[in-house]
Amino acid sequence: MGQISEINEDNIEDIRDYIGYDVAENIGREYFSGLISYDAFDEPAAAIVWSLKNADSFDESETEIYYFSSESTGDGGELLQEYSERIREDNIVRSSFELEDTDPEAESVLNEGGFDTKRKEGRNLYVTVEDLSSMPFTAKKKTPPYIRALESLTAVQFRQGVTNCMFCGRTGINEDLAMLPMDWYDMRVSSCMMTDGKVNGFFLIHRKPSGVLMPVLLYASGMDARKDMLNMLRYSMNAVINDYPPDTRIMVCRHDDKTRDLASYFFPGRKGEEVLQGERDEQG
Predict the structure, then answer these.
(1) What angle do CA 42, 106, 18 make, to 5 degrees?
(2) Strand pairing report for 62-70 and 191-195
(3) What digits encode the pLDDT tens for the residues 100-159?
(4) SS3 143
(5) pTM for the complete prediction?
(6) Which of 53, 150, 158, 200 would be 62's cystine partner, CB 3.0–4.6 Å?
(7) Are 112 and 46 in a shared domain?
(8) Residue 196 has pLDDT above 70, yes or no
(9) Residue 46 is assigned to a structural domain of this protein
(10) Is 257 exposed, middle or buried, given 0-12, 13-18 or 19+ CB atoms closer than 10 A?
(11) Cα–Cα distance between 243 and 250 in angstroms, integer?
(12) Domain extent for 143
């Protein structure tokens, strides 16, 4: 059996090239965990990174595996067993994943590990800045003065706006929204809505180390929330067009009905890439 170690902020610099920079940036965030297995020559042999979901629920907590790789079924099997033992201690009820570019060894390990897997269209839709610039929606540049760039806020105003989102149960795709600093987002292209001296809406966009832009949260409160969200979308889309090259990729995570409907409206007919999807009951 190879040596298995926890992936943490102390060793991530040595592991970053193996798991990829976009995955590695999540190590150290609340709810994210990782394990890595080394072979007899102290070379990485397998790795897994996952995140806790529904963390506030005692009997409905889940994990989502964000990354899994294995050089052999033996190494991967041992690592997956260690993962299973770790999450059992946390009373996890279900594990799931949606993985792109999965190698055959890793897929075999996941199947043998009890996951019900299938190939299907992924929830992530990839578009480019050039796609945004050709949309009639972005042809209109003007937005109301209360729609601003995120960089115009103070840290206190930003935190107040995040608190408002949390109070309304809106975290977007990040359950650790309350813990992330303002500069985790691209503050020039992310936008906010300021009314009566308060932040009442956000469109937050994160730039991954690879350069891929990832919308994280779109939310507004108030009677005109739908109109305000569209105005923030227009403001940020045009900011992205001005700040990034046309071939810059944007990853739209269609994680719920609202984001699926929005993606279908702006990018009709576009499909996500094929992924390996799977889940496993952890209470059986």
Answers:
(1) 40
(2) unpaired
(3) 988 888 999 999 999 999 999 999 999 999 999 999 999 988 999 999 999 999 999 999
(4) coil
(5) 0.95
(6) 53
(7) yes
(8) yes
(9) yes
(10) exposed
(11) 13
(12) 125-253
